[in-house]
Amino acid sequence: MAKFTYKMQNILDIKYKLETQAKTSFSIAAANLNREEEKLVELNLRKRGYENEARKLVADKLDFQAIKVNRAAIENMKGAIRSQTLAVQVAQRNLESARKHLQEVMTERKTHEKLKEKAFDEFKKEIEKDESKVVDELVSFTHNHAENE
Prior knowledge:
Blueprint (H helix, E strand, L loop, with lengths): L8 H51 L4 H85 L1
């Protein structure tokens, strides 16, 4: 019996590899986004801690030097939070880009799989047609041979 070979199997194999790479890129981008979001949460917690310390400094005996240092720390935290917010937004855009790329690669792979499936179905039909022809010839031969005897 004839063996089915898909002529574009090497392209399909490349599509599988590209999909694996895209999945890896997507997972790296997702991990990066998680890291950036965790940093932002940590910075917000530190800022709240400085703000609580500021309330305590104002409530106790006034130490202007400590209050000044604390306010500078709060302003530094605000700047760091703004920077980290931008880093989170960049990570979100990178994740979205990786998701779109993964989606495109998966679509291409699925298209090639459908083409392979279609080629296999056509191959099966051709084999069935050939088998039917052979059976018809055998029946004709047997019938003609039986009449001759």
